[in-house]
Amino acid sequence: MIYLDNNATTPIDPAASEKMCQFIKEHFGNPSSLYPIGRKVKEIVTEVREVIAKVIGASRTEIIFTSSGTEADNFAIRGVLDALPEKNEIITSAIEHPAVMNTAGYLEKKGVKVIYVPVDEYGIVDLDFLKKAITPQTALISIMLANNEIGTVQPIGKISKIAKEKGVLVHTDAVQAFGKIDVNVNKLGVDLLSMSAHKIYGPKGVGALYVRKGTDIWPLIYGGLQEREMRAGTENTIGIVGFGEAVKVVTGTRDKDKKRIAKLAEQLKKGIEERIPKVKFNGHETNRMKGTLNFSFYGLEAEAILLALATKEIYVSTGSACSEGAEEVSHVLEAIGLKPEIARSSIRMSLGRFNTEEDIKIVLEELPEIVKKLREISALDIDED
Ligand code: PLP
Questions:
Q1: What is the pLDDT of residue 320?
Q2: How far is the CA of 318 from the centre of ligand 1 (A)?
Q3: C-alpha angle 262-268-273 in degrees, rounded to nearest 5
Q4: Does any ligand 1 atom lie closer than 6 A to the CB of residue 99?
Q5: Of the given ranges (8-17, 242-251, 354-363, 376-385), which has the lowest mean pLDDT?
Q6: 3-state secondary structure (DSSP) of residue 73
Q7: What spacing in Å lies between the alpha carbon of 175 and ligand 1's midpoint?
Q8: Mind listing the pLDDT tens digit for each residue in 223-236?
Q9: Residue 48 CB: number of other CB atoms within 10 A?
Q10: Which residue, of 82, 119, 158, 361, is most buried by count of CB atoms within 10 Å of its CB?
Q11: How many angstroms is it from 180 CA to the middle of ligand 1?
């Protein structure tokens, strides 16, 4: 199998699974229990909180565990709006993950004004537009750090600066960026930041929200007093332990992985551009998570390419995993100006720690053949405009 869908999810790191197995066998206590077996688990959860906090330049009381990146995004946006009832506007971008986009859509139905900042052809948000969109009613700006479909990295530091001048809070969805590029809440200047374990070789079903000390926010989930009364529900202790181990590994290997993945991705990109005619690369050449490659193959349906590759056990994506199977075209590709038929011909290949040179070699042997054959049987006209 050649797995080129690391932005959808990553295989679990052996160190993380090992740690989780050991934890399951040895600890079952509830971290809220006051006797030793509960306190021990609380101690372990606190250690992980510390590990995550340290990596992003935060303190451990600023980390709240959630069930996912999606919950962290919902919590940040809805929690801030709940805490600031006198404000009823938020600003986000046109290329957010559904976890933010559909939260914004829900809020619109509830009467919140949502302003969607457009992006340029590379997926970078329009800072002038953003600046002008801020009003005294703006509660929050929520812009992702790195895009899941095309990998574009946003100038969050600049956005925070603009926001601070107007006294507006900033949330960034760093679910894709965390573990791939440097993520430091102070350099970014953000008040809230979402993370997810399964994008960094940790388990699924656990994430975290960084909340800067003093930020006005209400919980999303009410119940018990867990997570300093900010997120009720007994913690996913097994997931948290796996998350912590994954963070430790990723922190140690990130710089090396980053270089290696960038090199492999560049080989793949060059190889595709040299071997396959009529392709378009989508995304920013430099301000991008280098392991994310998005290509349009003129005249084809992406799904046909995906399925043909899958028969060779090469796994790629047609875009965001969450919109896989959806009829409409990717809102990200639409936002960067692709025509619907071009957007529908687009494949995302996202590389990760476990990819090898051999993987790239095989893909470069198989993909050109598949595209050639599909184009021969395709009735679609190839239009490069
Ligand atoms: N935000 C971004 C940018 C993502 O890529 C994803 C997952 O694909 C999420 C949020 C959702 O994270 P989770 O799968 O942990 O809910």
A1: 46
A2: 16
A3: 125
A4: yes
A5: 376-385
A6: helix
A7: 6
A8: 999 999 999 999 99
A9: 25
A10: 119
A11: 14
- What's the rounded mean pLDDT across residues 190-205? 98
What mean pLDDT do residues 79-90 have? 97
Alpha-carbon span 352 to 350, nearest angstrom:
7
Check the CA dihedral 106-110-112-114 and report its sign: positive
Q: Is 21 a catalytic residue?
A: no
Ligand 1 atom 8, closest CA: 8
Measured CA distances, 160 to 42, 89, 169, 180, 223 (Å): 34, 17, 8, 21, 33
Which pLDDT score, from 0 to 100, does residue 328 have? 77
What is the spatial distance between Cα 189 and Cα 82, in angstroms, rounded to a whole number? Answer: 22
Measure the CA angle with vertex 191, ends 190 and 196; round to 5°. 85
CA gap 271, 269 in Å, rounded: 5
Mutate to test the pocket of ligand 1, among 95, 154, 199, 292 (most ligand atoms within 8 A of CB): 199
CA-closest residue to ligand 1 atom 5 = 148
**Residue 360 near residue 264, CB atoms below 8 Å:** yes
Instruction: Output the CA 112–ligand 1 centroid distance in Å.
Output: 23
Q: How far apart are CA 360 and CA 356, in angstroms?
A: 7
Q: Is 70 in the pocket of ligand 1 (CB under 6 A)?
A: yes
Contact 5, 316 (CB under 8 A): yes
Q: Decide whether any atom of ligand 1 lies within 6 Å of the 317 Cβ.
A: no
Model pLDDT for residues 265-323, shown as the tens digit of each residue: 999 999 999 999 999 999 999 999 999 999 999 999 999 999 999 999 999 999 644 45
* CA distances (Å), origin 249, targets 71, 103, 369: 24, 32, 37
- The finding on whether 330 has its CB within 6 A of some atom of ligand 1 is no
Q: Is the CB of 98 under 6 A from ligand 1?
A: no
Q: Which residues of 233-265 are buried (b: 16+ CB within 10 A; e: fewer)?
A: eebbbbbbbbbbbbbbbbeeebeebbebbeebb
What is the mean predicted confidence (pLDDT) over 32-38? 98
Q: Which of 127, 322, 364, 380 is labelled catalytic? A: 322
pLDDT score, position 254: 86
* Closest-lying ligand 1 atom to the alpha carbon of residue 96: 3
Q: Ligand 1, residue 148: give the atom nearest the CA.
A: 5
Q: Kind and range of the H or E element at 82?
A: helix 69-83
